[in-house]
Amino acid sequence: MSKNLSNLSGRKGLKTNLFEALGIAAEATGTPSKDKMEELAAQFLMGTANIFGATSFYDFLRADNKDKKVFVCNGSACMTAGTQDELKEKLGQHFKEEEIGDMCCLGRCHENKAFYYAGKNYSGDAISELDEIKSGAAATIDNYAVGSFGTAVLTKAYSNLKDYYKTLSIALSKSPEELLTQLTVSGLRGRGGAGFPIAFKLESCKNTTGNQKFIVCNADEGDPGAYSDRYLMEQQPHAVLLGMMIAGYIVGADTGVLYIRAEYPESQACMQQAINELLSEKILGENIFGTPFNFNFKLIKAMGAYICGEETALLSSIEGQRPEVRVRPPYPTQQGLFNKPTVVNNVETLACIPDIIKNGGAHFASIGKGKSTGTKLVSLDGFFNKPGIYEVDMGTPLDIVINELGGGFREDIKAMHIGGPLGGLVPVEKIKDLSIDFESFAANGFLLGHASIVCIPKGFPIIKYLEHLFAFTAHESCGKCFPCRIGSTRGFEMLKKAQETDYKIDSLLFNDLIETLELGSLCALGGGLPLPIKNALQYFDKELKPYFMQRDTLITAS
Ligand SMILES: Cc1cc2nc3c(=O)[nH]c(=O)nc-3n(C[C@H](O)[C@H](O)[C@H](O)COP(=O)(O)O)c2cc1C
Ligand code: SF4
Q1: What value does the mean pLDDT take over residues 338-367?
Q2: CATH for 146-368?
Q3: Pairing state of beta strands 452-457 and 413-418?
Q4: pLDDT class for 532, splitting at 50, 70, 90?
Q5: pLDDT at 1 over 60
Q6: Is the pLDDT of residue 555 over 70?
């Protein structure tokens, strides 16, 4: 069924895009009207239920959010920093309670107290300037440290457009096969979490026959604590665009789609400005640099749903379908956007391509450690003395990131949640054993993920953090499979009840729940939640024991 819907949406393609039309329909009143949904259903030959099903999924299209005027970041970093209550109280002096909503996460983890108002993000001390903000006067620029340790690939200073795009001109003088070989040699693996080699994906898409192919940039950076993609979009946008263009040339795609999350309005504006710069320099469109290569971009503004970062849900979202995760195979490179061959890559992965093509795959492969080649951006939250975005060679000891680059913790910290909500919960005593690369994290029972670090201070109860993770998953679950849809809610209920009453969690039941989530979930939202939970049960068993029925050990699942 969803394949038919993909075809129906694809009839109008990206120019008259259904998802975009839903966003426009919501602009005036906060949610598309019933009449408008019926009109769009008729226009796209779909059922009204399909349109309603999609609309009701998103935080910024849903009817129950339509009267909200200001949104408080409810991400993990703002939560552990403990800034949300005070922020809500201060906002309450200017807005009615029903006008204040939640958003996750605004990527202002370096200074917290983050909120969204009238299409802009604010954080840090901005709350004290609310009168000016409401009158439209205050600036929204936030400051965070940017640095590198080792080779600066992604944080290198940008020269100018003409200089920078010489790499494209050189790339277009070579064959797609030659470029693909360089990417294979580079060993570049996806930075969005799974670490899949980009060259395999590009090769698969290149080898799939199709009259239309797409390069999709996954800019839905939804992991609370991560803001490295935001950094790239706002400060290095041309690395992302050039990476997409080279990828397009390799596979034979003439369209690049940037799917950028609603919570990053500034990133959307920066990327659009960079696209406009290319248009005015005629480095987009037909016959770029006098070659047969044609390429254009389409920027899609997302509407607030974490699961849209999962690549197949993201494709359904662009098509205006309810963003439920798709069963693979077929893989997107075979049947992706509108059922056409599509490459989906993370912002940071794509931004590495220009350097590889300019300096050669071997140079990139010489940086890093083992199968983790190149560099990685790491996001540090407000618990560091020098919070910010740091680029490190893969293989850099975690201790250097924390103590040298980040300047150490400014408070007593007991654990760090590294790699997003599905990443591992790393107790501070493990810092010495870890380095920033895929293998080190996996070997120690954690996950590098997108390499964001959210600190959990000594005084913050681990059980409360686990409750937050279950609540997050329950809110963001696409609902396609029951272990995640139901299991996340049951887990949340158990943890909440154990904190609020004398109820004790049965560890056998809890372990059954975690095992079912891990083994029975279709995607890594439900399937990945057990990792930080198991880490917590292993490393914080003493702290958690009072909430469980007495057993020798809290972990019984394998
Ligand atoms: C629940 C969930 C959320 C995800 N969110 C993101 C995201 O925000 N950004 C991203 O690049 N990848 C995200 N991914 C991974 C994508 O599905 C996909 O693997 C990635 O975009 C591929 O690009 P890469 O190979 O360059 O990493 C997510 C996966 C899951 C299961
Ligand atoms: S694990 Fe959750 S988010 Fe993933 S497909 Fe199943 S219900 Fe959807």
Answers
A1: 98
A2: 3.40.50.11540
A3: antiparallel
A4: very high
A5: no
A6: no
Q: 372-457 architecture in CATH?
A: Roll (3.10)
- Which two three-digit tokens encode residue 414? 């007991």
Domain boundaries, the chain: 2-65, 70-143, 146-368, 372-457, 462-547
Residue 415 and residue 540: Cα distance in Å, rounded? Answer: 10
Q: How far is the CA of 520 from the centre of ligand 2 (A)?
A: 10
- Torsions phi, psi of 395, nearest 5? 100, -5
What lines the ligand 1 site, CB under 6 Å? 190-194, 196, 218, 220-222, 307, 309-311, 344-346, 349, 523-525
Please work out, in degrees rounded to the nearest 5, the angle formed at the alpha carbon of residue 272 by the alpha carbons of 44 and 253: 60
- What's the gap in Å between 219 CA and the centre of ligand 1? 9
Q: Which CATH class for the 462-547 domain?
A: mainly alpha
Query: For residues 194 and 264, is the Cβ–Cβ distance under 8 A?
Result: no
How far is ligand 2, taken at its centre, from the CA of residue 383, in Å? 32
CA of residue 311 to ligand 1 center, whole Å: 6
**pLDDT per residue over 83-120, tens digit each?**
999 999 999 999 999 999 999 999 999 999 999 999 99
Secondary structure (H, E, C), 380-435: ECCCECCCEEEEEECCCEHHHHHHHHCCCECCCEEEEEECCCCCEEEEHHHHHHCE
Q: What is the mean pLDDT of residues 508-536?
A: 97
Q: Cα dist. 181→178, 198, 525, 549 in Å? A: 5, 11, 33, 57
Smallest-distance ligand from the CA of 332 = 1
Q: What are the residues whose beta carbons fall under 8 Å from the beta carbon of 430, sequence distance 6 or more?
A: 444, 446, 539
Residue ranges of the alpha helices (H) in 299-427? 311-318, 347-359, 361-366, 398-399
Residue nearest atom 14 in ligand 1 by C-alpha distance: 310
Nearest CA to ligand 2 atom 4: 523
